[in-house]
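It is worth pausing here to work through a concrete case rather than discussing structure prediction in the abstract. The textbook approach is simple: state the sequence, then state the predicted structure, then interpret. We follow exactly that order.
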Amino acid sequence: MSVFAPGYYGRFACIMDKCEHSCCYGWRLSLDDRTRDKYKSCTLAYGERLREFLGEDDEGGFIVTGSDMRCPHLDERGLCRVIIELGEEHLCDICREHPRFYNLTGDRIEVGIGASCPEAARIICSSRDYLPIMIEGHPVPELEVIEESVSTLELRSSIYKDMEKTSFDELEESLIKRLGISRAVLSSRMMEEILSGLEYIDEGDRKLMLRAVQEKKKLGDAELKRIFAYFIYRHLTDCTSEADCAARVGFALFSTRVVEKMSELTDSLDDALRMYSAEVEYSTENTDDAIMTIWAENI
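Step two, the predicted structure:
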């Protein structure tokens, strides 16, 4: 099966202890079954520490963290002791793959980097080569086939082509008319309605995002296109119906405009994208709720 990724994908590498928003704290660190069993049976010297912070509940195995949600396997420099003591092959799936995401669509697998990672967000916001290209020799996990799904590759390809020929404002207007997306989706009222109904990791992020709704920030055309290209690549793969496609394109437009407004209140555009991605994209419930609200508004 062919594997595709945005042109900028190959430039990503974890910056480890230099990261200002480490993925090693603030999240529930879930363990896949293979890694959980490996940690339970590890006979090496570091095995005792692996088991000391090994927890299990109805959702499966996880790494037990303190009140600050900091991974107990980080050393004083912010480096991973599992890698240092045992090697990268002992990492759980989520630690090895983050911030990569995978989508199965048609006869191809697509891999990308999620913008909740600061380094990924910097690459996404600064890269012109966002179009998907085929890559060779990339290992991929097993992916679930979505039954009764409709491939959106043709639609997404046409959107990419239009992006090369028109301004983002013209593209946005064209998609609204072409797909029957409600203009209300991009209004301050709708932004506030959707954002206020989500669950947040950080209360400060919630306040900033809701305050940003009233901002009038205007990004450059190239910046808007790069952000929008990321959102449609990640969220517009297979859809269940034409209405689902319209809702997902609407979500990509909505997300792009929210990040645009947030960038007025954050240190940088990539920080605004990182915050939005961490709070919205990395919660399946938040993403689904936003898409369903946009779907209902389009009807």
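Step three, interpretation. The radius of gyration is 20 Å. The chain has a mean pLDDT of 92.
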